[in-house]
Amino acid sequence: MPDLTEKQTFSDQEALDFHRIPTPGKISMAPTKPMATQRDLSLAYSPGVAVPVLAIAQDADKAYEYTSKGNLVAVISNGTAILGLGNLGHMASKPVMEGKSVLFKRFADVDSFDVQVKTTDPDEFITVVKNIGDTWGGINLEDIKSPECFVIESELQDLLDIPVFHDDQHGTAIISTAGLINACHVAGKRLDEVKVVLAGAGAAGLSSIALMKAAGVKAENTVICDKDGVVYKGREHGMDQWKAAHATDTPHRTLAEAMVGADVVLGLSAKGAITKEMVASMAPNPIIFAMANPDPEITPL
After folding, report:
1. DSSP category for residue 2
2. Is residue 156 within 8 Å of 182, Cβ to Cβ?
3. Catalytic hit among 45, 66, 118, 227
4. pTM confidence score
5. CA–CA separation, 50 vs 1, rounded Å?
């Protein structure tokens, strides 16, 4: 296992070289059968392959028994919200999607390949994924901008009979809520009493605040902020149904105002969004999750 405590420092050139040398990219394919003899090849392809073909034609679920489908996940993106860098196009998302495939293989031994979809239209994206979805045992959606990501995930879950998971929403929500539960224990705070401020009302932020509420954080103790300020009840500019669902009655209009006296700040916005003055204004023993990607809102140094 890698040393996860090791300080991660590298230059831009080192990052490029890592992805380029000795072989471009981070993933490859390897056969699960020996392929050592003519007989092996005849079984793997024609004529032997016709036997499982006919079995699957009779019962599509046999694909889980005779192919790699059951341990194969697609990581799919259109590149409209890459890390915290924004809409950089479908091909720019490929290094990230390959990286997620590596994580699936390295930590869960799940085989995974990335798919880049060249469209920013949600309906077109849904159609593409729906029509190729049977290839995999599961689909991991990633780096798709909000609010389109909510619609895409929901519709694909209805259309496909395999798990469809939007990592930016649920992966972030699970780990941040688990972290909050533990942090409250360490800091001597209660979930049903803490005041939580969310900086960044995108897919990750809204899903995280929703799960925290389900875990015990009271809705009236939450304040959500986006690039236009506090998401308050009655706000009209820059709103959608997903933000509106978490809007609260509050006099605060800026992130700095909202953080005064807060117990928790959940950062899923951009580098530099949280200042040391904002942190100083928080309640004693503040809990700070600075999770903007690739660079956090604030650092300890």
Report:
1. -
2. no
3. 45
4. 0.86
5. 41
Out of 162, 195, 225, pick the residue that ends a domain. 162
Nearest to 79 by CA among 131, 123, 114, 113: 114
220 in the same domain as 138: no
Which of these three, 112, 129, 162, is where a domain ends? 162
pLDDT in tens, the chain (301 residues): 444 445 568 999 999 999 999 999 999 999 999 999 999 999 999 999 999 999 999 999 999 999 999 999 999 999 999 988 899 999 999 999 999 999 999 999 999 999 999 999 999 999 999 999 999 999 999 999 999 999 999 999 999 999 999 999 999 999 999 999 999 999 999 999 999 999 999 999 999 999 999 999 999 999 999 999 999 999 999 999 999 999 999 999 999 999 999 999 999 999 999 999 999 999 999 999 999 988 899 998 7
Q: What whole-number distance in Å separates Cα of residue 136 and Cα of residue 152? A: 17
- Are 156 and 182 in the same domain? no
Beta strands 287-290 and 264-267: pairing type?
Answer: parallel
155 and 43 together in one domain: yes
Q: Exposed/middle/buried for 257, CB within 10 Å: 0-12, 13-18, 19+?
A: middle
The DSSP line for 5-74 is TS-----HHHHHHHHHSSSSSS-----SS---SHHHHHHHSTTTTHHHHHHHHH-GGGHHHHSSGGGEEE
Overall number of domains in the chain: 2
45 is an active site residue: yes
Q: Are residues 148 and 190 in the same domain?
A: no
Catalytic residue (choose from 62, 66, 69, 100): 100
The reply to whether 158 and 181 lie within a common domain is no
Give the residue numbers spanning the domain of 255: 170-290
Q: What is the CATH number of the domain that holds 121?
A: 3.40.50.10380
181 falls within a domain: yes
